[in-house]
TrEMBL record:
Entry similarity comment: Belongs to the COBRA family.
Coiled-coil ranges (or none): none
Compartments reported by the entry: Cell membrane
Annotated ranges, domain COBRA C-terminal: 217-408
Membrane topology: Lipid-anchor; GPI-anchor
Entry keyword set: Glycoprotein, GPI-anchor, Lipoprotein, Membrane, Signal, Transmembrane, Transmembrane helix
Transcription listed as a keyword: no
Primary localization class, coarse: membrane
InterPro entries referenced in this protein's UniProt entry, alphabetically: COB_C, COBRA_pln
Any Gene Ontology CC annotation: plasma membrane
Any Pfam family hit: COBRA
Name under which the protein is recorded: COBRA-like protein
């Protein structure tokens, strides 16, 4: 019996790891790095490196990706276009009047900023490391760069063109080993001619919320028109005020007294408004109104982080009535159907130049929408919390939901009507006994 228990425990630990990157709402989500060997020049070779964000709703915002790898030999990057290495490194082994762009064993490559010099640009470059999700913007989910690389000493095999140990430099992302795929093809001469590269390798990178942060980043509160109770975010959803290292402020007036992150910090640690949940983002779902054939929901996203604006944010909601969404106000909306005909997931994001930027905590630190949904006579009900979402994620990270037994409930009018006559009857009996 003891051996059986050990075997089952080991199986669960190894197969259901919290660090695994599978997301049931986006089962094929990944960022793919494509390494195309374009030309072999003898002593050097040209490569094109592409990053493709194959994630439906998770995006990469500033400060952006930082691509790195490990060379197998003593390679050096002579020239690079569409990006740059953050360190040149020690190039003393290279003899000549001109030094390479980067001689690091593990180069770290960053995207160029918009407006870079034209002679340094290539197609799909110069976005500051930002990659949008496939659903939000098809024009910005790809990044690319080109390099001229000095061959390593004794490199006589095709496998020698491919480095190892790829990393995106983003919290939560883990990259696998390179694997060879059919060579990439490109259209030329008005799509009448196809050309192809010499060799192509792919590297697949997946995201894990557990690896990205040991604590959640958002929580959900609930309310409804038929109940005076507002269900708050669960206590200590993202952190607890009592824990060491927890930073929060009671009001914006206290900010000058605090040591805020320096400007050169790429990703400042959250500095949130003091609350029982301590989350940077709070999503409030309010069942606002009921009509004969429709019902209305109001969604409010509040930024409680004093040191960060969220650009190109998005919200993904799982609810069984989303197949009957009639109209969404103030937000963009797109249904997600990762499992064919099951239409119960929707994605919301801001309208450009209106509310696509969620400002830091303050009077303007929130965005709101209202949504009209048609009632399905076979399934719709206000009972047992059916009108509340099953799951909500902000920027791809799942939010902490209140427990179902705390959801606002319909008033139990039948119970009240039964109790009231009983109370009156007991009072009359008491009066009879006293008299």
């Amino acid at each position: 019996m003891g051996l059986l228990f050990i075997f089952i425990s080991s199986f669960l630990i190894t197969t259901i790891s919290p660090s695994y990157g599978y997301d049931p709402l986006d089962p094929h989500a990944n960022i793919t790095i494509t390494w195309d060997l374009m030309i072999d020049n003898g002593d050097t070779y040209d490569v094109k490196v592409s990053l493709l964000n194959f994630q439906l709703f998770r995006h990469i915002e500033q400060p952006g990706w930082k691509l790195s790898w490990t060379w197998k030999g003593d390679e050096a990057i002579w020239g690079i276009w569409g990006a740059e290495a953050i360190q040149q490194g020690n190039c003393s082994r290279i003899k000549g009047p001109v030094l390479p762009h980067c001689c690091e064993k593990q180069p770290v490559i960053v995207d160029l900023m918009p407006g870079a010099r034209y002679n340094k640009q290539v197609a799909n470059c110069c976005k500051g490391g930002v990659l949008t999700s496939m659903t939000q913007d098809h024009s910005m989910y790809v990044a690319a760069l080109r390099m001229n690389v000095n061959k390593a000493s004794g490199n006589n095999t095709s496998d020698g063109f491919m480095p190892v140990n790829f990393n995106l430099g983003l919290p939560g992302y883990t990259c696998g080993d390179p694997f060879q795929v059919p060579p990439s093809k490109f259209k030329e001469d008005g799509s009448r001619r196809w050309t192809q590269v010499l060799d192509t390798w792919n590297v697949t990178c997946i995201y894990s919320q557990f690896r990205a942060s040991p604590t959640p980043k958002c929580c959900v509160s609930l309310s409804a028109f038929y109940n005076n109770t507002i269900v708050p975010c669960p206590q200590c959803s993202c952190n607890c005020q009592e824990l060491a290292g927890a930073k929060c402020v009671k009001s914006a007036k206290a900010l000058p007294m605090l040591e805020l992150p320096h400007a050169n910090e790429e990703e400042p640690q959250p500095l949130v408004r003091c609350s029982k949940h301590m989350c940077p983002i709070r999503v409030h779902w309010h069942v606002k109104q009921s009509y004969r054939e429709y019902w209305r929901v109001k969604i409010t996203i509040t930024n409680l982080n004093f040191v960060k604006n969220y650009s190109k944010w998005n919200l993904v909601v799982l609810h069984p009535n989303f197949r009957n969404v009639t109209q969404v106000f103030s937000f963009n909306y797109h249904p997600l159907s990762p499992y064919g005909n099951i239409n119960d997931t929707g994605m919301f994001w801001g309208i450009p130049y209106y509310n696509e930027m969620l400002l830091q905590s303050g009077p303007s630190g929130n965005v709101q929408t209202e949504m009209l949904l048609q009632k399905d006579p076979g399934t719709f009900t206000f009972r047992e919390g059916w009108t509340f979402p099953r799951r909500i994620s902000f920027n791809g990270d799942e939010c902490v939901m209140p427990p179902p037994d705390e959801y606002p409930r319909l008033p139990n009018s039948g119970h009240s009507a039964t109790v009231r006559p009983l109370i009156i009857l007991l009072l009359l009996l008491l009066l009879v006994v006293v008299l």
